[in-house]
Design brief:
By secondary structure, this protein is an alpha+beta fold. It contains 3 helices and 3 strands, in the order H-H-E-E-E-H. A 3-stranded antiparallel sheet has the order 1-2-3. The chain is globular, with a radius of gyration of 13 Å. The protein starts with a helix and ends in a 5-residue tail after the last helix. The relative contact order is 0.15.
Amino acid sequence: MSKFDLMNKARYLRKEETKAEKILWREIRNRKLGIKFRRQHSIDKFILDFYAPEINLAIELDGSIHKENKEYDNLRTEYLKSKNLKV
């Protein structure tokens, strides 16, 4: 997937956020926890639900779609950990 495709997909995911993403975003946006978070942020070929660059933290909310994608999720998690991100 090209960088342009990732940006478009991330933009789409921000517009079509899940209920869980909406609730969490409301609680962590605008540095409410003292840390800046980004929504649907791409790291290489993956789009993270939430990312805090200041502390190298990736947050992934596992909804129903993740039940079918466990292998992909495990691959993504291992890749992100190899980049020194906490998931």
